[in-house]
Amino acid sequence: MKVIIIGGVAAGMSAASKLKRLKEDTEIIVYEKGSDLSYGACGMPYFISDVIKEEASLIARTKDEFLKRGINVHTQHEVIKVDTDQKQLSIKDLENNTIIYDTYDKLIIATGASAIRLPVEGKTLKGIHTLKTLEDARSLKQRLQDETVQKIAVIGGGFIGLEVVESIVESGKKAILIEREPQLMPQYDADIMAPITTMLARAGVEIHLGETVKAYQGDETVSRIKTDKRTLSVDLVIEAIGVKPDTGFLEDSDIKRHDNGAVIVDKQLRTNLEDIYAAGDCATVYHRLKDSFTAYVPLGTHANKAGRIIAENIAGNPITFPGVIGSNHLKCLQYEIAKTGLSEKEAEALDLAFDTVMVKAANQAGYYPDAKPVHIKLTFERHTHRLLGCQMVGEKGVALRINIMATAIQAGMDAQTFSNLDLAYAPPFSPVWDPLQVATNQIK
Amino acid sequence: MKVIIIGGVAAGMSAASKLKRLKEDTEIIVYEKGSDLSYGACGMPYFISDVIKEEASLIARTKDEFLKRGINVHTQHEVIKVDTDQKQLSIKDLENNTIIYDTYDKLIIATGASAIRLPVEGKTLKGIHTLKTLEDARSLKQRLQDETVQKIAVIGGGFIGLEVVESIVESGKKAILIEREPQLMPQYDADIMAPITTMLARAGVEIHLGETVKAYQGDETVSRIKTDKRTLSVDLVIEAIGVKPDTGFLEDSDIKRHDNGAVIVDKQLRTNLEDIYAAGDCATVYHRLKDSFTAYVPLGTHANKAGRIIAENIAGNPITFPGVIGSNHLKCLQYEIAKTGLSEKEAEALDLAFDTVMVKAANQAGYYPDAKPVHIKLTFERHTHRLLGCQMVGEKGVALRINIMATAIQAGMDAQTFSNLDLAYAPPFSPVWDPLQVATNQIK
To answer: Which numeric CATH code is attached to B2-45+60-114+244-314?
Structure first.
């Protein structure tokens, strides 16, 4: 059996490695259009700030290591066309500028996504960066080490935006954060994010919410941003406004894609065409709480799980991916921000019969030194009290604690069952009632 | 309705407060034989070491606060007899040395437990302490501040023992730890505890495992411990070998008790006699994984939950306590130690068909600075792969992470379902596969 994988980062190389372990005699060929393989993209915000010094730390496995395992990896090879009838690919060798052809028995599409760029005047000026590939990270890291670069605008107050703002603040430079929505982290509810906005402002970040970039200006290099409200003087711009699936090469194929271009897959990560799978940032994912096959949640953790499950399926084990519920967390300076399941606005959009509670509780026994408040907002089904979502912010005990609630929600637990869970307790780590149980105790 | 509660610490005062909120017109009378009410006993190891400076920090609510809420609290009142036919109590007023009588409609037994003492020669010498009551803590704190007290023996390597050893090490004094079993934390498996023994020895703790205290020696005050293997010179002794339920006053009653004296209750915390409930360290608790009503797990977190559930039942809401699975964690110097569900030896004792896996995984992305290994041991049902237990030790990301697995076990989850859970991920907090999922991925 010959398996071709298009894309050699998270989903693609997870699938390759797992498949080789499950069925050693499988012929596996990977075509990656970039130069880098299997890197930890989520570490890039820490690489550009020099928290992570060496680029090599981000590389999980090198090309040589894959070749040694019998996985035939070709970098600088861009697949430009898929003929699903003939099971044949057209591939551009970017180094030699030639076209080659190859055929597959099974195909895995794992091409990832690209940074969305703002389509505004001045967008081709120098000094406007994104942070999606390792190449982006290299060039951004270099620019940030330039001492003449002091005022840095970050466009977009989502995950990458806030992680990058942290880097800038810690480097002692000036961060200017511009977000189109009237709040940071727009997938969260506005009320739970309020303490983060306050904290960032206190840390010296200039925050502009509900403000839209209209143009970049400057002489060769960007030096001003014109928004709908003002003109800002800047030395560098980092756009972090989201990503779009890299699936343009499928345009002439019959492979079904979602509105944003993501390949639509079922719970076995199969596309609509036999023998073709897709996973990672180029594909949709099943959302358990929305009961939707067209959710787009481009995160490394899903890419890794999905790659592994494709390998199992190709190896003959029909395992399904139960889907996602929207769990995420991030560090932003001294704060931890976390969410799982549905926010209030997501529950509203689904037209569910739900209610919310919001509590503030200590992360640990109040008498143990250095306890910090944790803000918790729960979303739950009105009549059954089934838990639907949780959002948390605080300085301690937030990031890992969200996964307790993530597990409960995926188990279909209601508030009372959660309140009575036997959770470990000791003063340095938790009050006698865990903050999450303090919250579920409010649901009556 | 007149409710009498015997015992005014965790279970008793939780029940009193909750019942007053649910049914304000209930007459609630509390008899507590000690002087202190509603204190955070779990904070005492940190109080004696001066990590917690003020005793007042440990007091959740004062007598005056309870009185103001209409809860009639009597301290220094010891219930010495229960006449369950007449629904009458005999109570000794310890201040005035008189006997009074009172009658109840509903009775809650929440008398807690006392420290077990070693029944050895020299046990009445001065300088031998326990740490069960706030009075114990006061006198121990005073002794530890004495500069002539330098060599302190801790008898018992369980929770309290290790927390106290931490205190001693951090105060710069010499800790000598003596444990009868051949390992620390005997309810854990020996293999998972090995890194802790090594760490404590490196921190300068003199550890004697598998060694039994035979006698205390000294002139008025203890100065030597004779064990079955050697004689140790000491300035102070702290016994931390467990607790026994304070239920001697029930000896002549028909209230059913377990071998160790704990009052046996059902899932509604009812004893065998109508209108009589029991909770906290004086009662048994239902263990979900052992399917046993005679488990004895004296922990504050269960006492608080059980107290609240008794109040609901008395108020007419027949809520059940689903039971415990043995979740606990503790801090010991730079390490976190945690367990939920069944250890290997507990699964063996139950004669279950089970297997175990043991893994070492990083607590966070390997490339993010200061990642630490987490040692994880899982116990699971052999044929179904249902998760039965988890033990973890490590320097970071252990204490809160155990509650993710505690929730999964209580939901009846199997390994594959756990591996596919959507858990939040970001480099400072977790690798792309959570360490717990790295462990469940090993179950095939």
So the answer is: 3.50.50.60
Cα distance from B117 to chain A (closest Cα, Å)?
24
Assign domain B328-440 to a CATH class. Answer: alpha beta
CB contact under 8 A, B339 and A425: no
Q: Which of A302, A399, A425 sits opposite B429 (nearest CB)?
A: A399
Q: Do A299 and B408 touch (CB under 8 A)?
A: no
Pick the CATH number of A2-41+60-114+244-314 from 2.30.30.20, 1.10.10.10, 3.40.50.11540, 3.50.50.60: 3.50.50.60
Task: Nearest by CB to B424, from A321, A329, A417: name it.
Answer: A329
Q: Is B42 a catalytic residue?
A: yes
B117-241 matches B2-45+60-114+244-314 in CATH topology = yes
Rounded to the nearest 10 degrees, the angle between the axes of helix B402-410 and helix A402-410 is 20
Q: What is the pLDDT of residues A409-420, one digit of tens each?
A: 999 999 999 999
* Each residue's pLDDT tens digit, B92-123: 999 999 999 999 999 999 999 999 999 999 99
Binned average pLDDT, 10 residues per bin, chain B of 444 residues: 96 96 97 91 92 91 93 97 97 97 98 97 97 93 95 98 96 97 97 97 98 97 98 98 97 96 97 98 97 96 96 96 97 98 98 98 95 98 98 98 98 97 97 96 94
What residues does each domain of chain B span?
A: 2-45+60-114+244-314, 117-241, 328-440
- Identify the CATH homologous superfamily for domain A117-241: FAD/NAD(P)-binding domain (3.50.50.60)
Q: Which residues of A touch B423 (CB under 8 A)?
A: 301, 327, 403, 406-407
What is the DSSP pairing of strand B27-31 with strand B71-74?
A: parallel
* Helix, strand, coil % in chain B, rounded to nearest 5: 25, 30, 45
pTM of the model: 0.96
3-state secondary structure chain A: CEEEEECCCHHHHHHHHHHHHHCCCCEEEEECCCCCCCECHHHHHHHHCCCCCCHHHHECCCHHHHHHCCEEEECCEEEEEEECCCCEEEEEECCCCEEEEEECCEEEECCCEEECCCCCECCCCECEECCCCHHHHHHHHHHHCCCCCCEEEEECCCHHHHHHHHHHHHCCCEEEEEECCCCCCCCCCHHHHHHHHHHHHHCCCEEEECCCEEEEEEECEEEEEEECCCEEECCEEEECCCEEECCHHHCCCCCCECCCCCECCCCCCECCCCCEEECCCCECEEECCCCEEEECCCCHHHHHHHHHHHHHHHCCCCCCCCCECCCEEEEECCEEEEEEECCHHHHHHCCCCEEEEEEEEECCCCCCCCCCEEEEEEEEECCCCEEEEEEEEECCCCCCCHHHHHHHHHCCCEHHHHHCCCCCCCCCCCCCCCHHHHHHCCCC
The residue with tokens 């000036």 is: A174
